Amino acid sequence: MKAILLLLFSFFSLTVFAQETQLSGTITDAATKEPLRGVSITVKDNLIGTITNREGLFKLTVPKLKLPFNLVVSSVGFERQEIAVTTTGQEVSIALQPQTVQLNEMVFAARRVNEGILESPVSIEKMTTQAIQENPSFTFYDGLQHLKGIDAVTSSITYKQINTRGFNDTGNSRFLQLIDGVDNQTPGLNFSVGNQFGASDIDVESVEIIPGAASALYGPVAFNGVLSMHTKDPFTYQGLTVQAKTGINHIAENGVQPKGLYDFAARYAKAFNNRLAFKINASYLSGVDWYANNFTDVSSQTAAAQRGPNNPGRDALNIYGDEVSKPLPGIGLVSRTGYEEKDLMNYNVYSLKLNGAIHYRISNNLEAIYQYNFGRGTASYTGSSRYDLNNFVLQTHRAELKGSNFFLRSYAVSENSHDSYNTRSLAQFINRDWVQNLDGQPVSPSEADNMWFTRYAHAFNGNATGVTASNHAAARTFADQGRFLPGTNSFDQAKEASIHNYGLSGAGVFSNSKFYHTEGQYDFSRFTKVIELLAGGSFRYYDMFTNGSLFDDKNQKITIKEYGSFVQASKKLFDDKLKLTASLRYDKNENFDGNFTPRFSGVYAINKAHYFRASFQTGFRNPTPVDQFINLNVGPITILGGAPKNSRGLNVYENSFTATSVGAFGGAFGAAVAGGKPFPQAVAENLNLLQKSNVAYIKPEQQKAFEVGYKSYLASKLLVDLNYYYSSYTDFILNTVVIQPQNNVYGPDGKINFAAASDIPGGKIHAFQLYTNAPDKVSAQGAGVSLTYLLNKGYNVGGNVTWSDFNLKNANRDNIAAFNTPEYSTNFTLSNSNVFRDFGFNLAWHWQSAFDWYGTFNGNEPGRIQAYSLVDAQISKKLVKANSTIKLGASNLFNNRVYQAYGSPAIGAIYHVSIIFNDLLK
What we know:
One of its GO terms (molecular function) is siderophore uptake transmembrane transporter activity. The protein is mainly beta. It has 11 helices and 50 strands.
């Protein structure tokens, strides 16, 4: 990284000598004849450009180019135009035609080259600059849910997860999120925490989403798709922009008073002589998070009919510590008294984003960029527990050289988990800090759980003075004597001590992990006239550090290297009506065999308004660093990642029994001993029940997908988009438990070893939870249709419907990633940016069907997500003379209490008002 920065700064010292051409002109609104400010004027196929001032005037200095060349003129809300420059000193006067919505937007992500969205070989969705500005949701990121085929899961006000085409999760490591080409995932979590550490609304220019496998161009993380966010170029978007937004949530909630939300953002950009430009961004969002307070009893050891608030063995979904339970003789299952999430989680969430970038145009077709992003915040995350990502920090450094036909980009991503913690573990540790024995003396944390159950049984059986016998409530009260109550000093002290204690002795989460990434691509099309040819490559280096709390990295480094390269060729045939594209990518992770991921596509244009497309795509996903290198001994079991080097010397993959066969052997051995047979005979008669495990080292997941689609653009009024896809999946990553004896599983005769079998009843064994892959094969299919229609007088109406279907086939559900996707979802939008005297409105409705959610938070047991609908709405008023806009809006207008993932909080309404000032100090 240092070498690259030195290289970039060395370019800054170059002086470019070239004869220059001066151009000037005026850009006006064809409808009103008024001058237009902020219009972008760029030289086609070059990086050089400028924007108009308040009077619609521009001046552009162009290094001498071979005449003629074209200028590209574009502005939000107007049709893009090109004009030829044929002489030096040419005066340019253009009247731009207004357009409420640009239906044939330019996109980049589908083929990594710019093209019209109608010509895209695969499904792609785009949120434009205008759509971001007029988005009715609380943030632009919240508004992504209204695009076709997009699923959103909210864990926190500051954390929403985006996914496409199934296998959804609250932390999605199968979906790639880019900001200006930089992977926004945290190195330790291995997924992006929504837009918590991303870009502010006022700096985002556009968002493109590819649903489905995109590994052929983007590598292993893009298994389920790509979300690519582009921020505003400081050459094009200059001046000061300030936004102030305030809102209110927790309306009409039981036990919670309404709370305020505050979102402030500022952006300043300045260009000097069309060579040097910079921008700085700062934004801060704060509020009180949604409360997770679903107290449904989900005890897996209690029959469904006996569950409920009066169940002594109750395990409430959002109460933690009560999952510690024990069957007591003559009493039944009893669980410890837990703590509600509100007493454990930090609900005062915030998101601080700071950003700065320097752009230097070395020549008219070579630009150097350095960008720094700093994000810090607090969010709630639903994983195997509810985690508090408390004061979590993510930083990125990006250095890039780019031209009109190439780029070379290098970036570094680092994290600091700071005060983050596991709320479930936190409750259990607090519960172990205060338990008294029967004489009223506190016991050690290691004895606390057993002593609590002893106290419970003592009281329930009538042995405690003054306590009613056979009364569960009275027994619990007796067992809870001395319990730390929320809000007391003793509770707060125990909570703080555990949060800052990492590993098995505390609830704290520690990670100072990093990764470094370099990639580049070059478009060779100008050299290969017969075909369009694009090639690129990448290298990534993970440097993990958890100080022994998650990996075995206290005295050794955990690093991972992976690299990849791709080539893409396109050819037009039949009078340019048919465009065929073939892509091939090869990726290699140092711990796995390499993967080839091809993609083939064809787009047929009946005419300029009707396009048919078909594609075959492949995807794969490397195991995450945690999947590969977790090495966590939790007492009776060790959780062990599946990279071969992670288990080196342990001999566990090679020498262990299946857990199922050990259970069968143990039962049969116990019955034999109970029947009077001696130990050796009981072992010998039943050892053939044991089976050697056959667990393979972990490897990447695989996907193959077919898609067909149709897009049409009718009378410059109607955009139609249809698609159908079918995908098959294999090698899903999963966990399996094995039992390792001290002796060899097989004896010299190749049969089950008597000594190894004897280790089991002798207690000379250890359990391992290993990461591996399932052999099962499943499939998914889906279809979508969207319509966007431009009505008269500036009205825009749109709608989309998505159908998703999952076929488990003959697979074991325990071996398959959870699909977690509604069968049907639909969106409807209606808007007009200027109904009357610069008053506008935007209305967006989302509905989705019910489905069962499977996740580790509830032990992979299903939890029902009911069908729901949301309405986001806003009205706006443009203050033209002040160049500002006031908005009054609502996310979830009717305040429906909506669960999007089982175990996560219910989401209510946010009512908000904002004012934004544009182009100040310009």
